Amino acid sequence: MMRQRPVGGLIITLASVSGFRGRPGLATYIAAKQGVVGLTKSLAVEWGPQNIRMLGVAPTAIDTPGFAGRTAEATSAELNRIAMLDRTIGAALPLGRLGTPDNIARVVLFRASDFSI
To answer: What does the alpha-carbon distance between residue 109 and residue 117 come to, in Å, rounded to a whole number?
Structure first.
């Protein structure tokens, strides 16, 4: 991006709201997401003067195939915990439900387009 003419571009990173807070039992996941947040902020400051923009996307709970697979493999106690989390987290979100991968994709697509510059 620094070698091209004109200099500049957009880098999009994907973190999580967990990158901004701690949660029990997810130390490695949260450490990784906090690393993504820190990297995004640092590169924004470092590369901004070269017209390289950084966008960090930090979604909340997303209903993904991985989430569905974890649910399918869960034991009864774990399945009850997942169902309870799904209900309570989903209900607490502004849309009243978990997000979808398409929700994220549309934001990223718009921000990567010329319409958002």
So the answer is: 12
Tell me the C-alpha distance between 98 and 89, whole Å: 7
* 56 noted as active-site residue: no
Active-site residue, from 29, 35, 69, 110: 29
Q: 29: closest CA among 48, 15, 41, 40?
A: 15
Phi, psi of 86 (to 5 degrees): -60, -45
* Structural contact between residues 49 and 6, judged by C-beta atoms closer than 8 angstroms: no
* Tens digits of residue pLDDT in 61-71: 888 887 777 77
> Tell me: the pLDDT tens digits for 38-75?
999 999 999 999 999 999 999 988 888 877 777 777 77
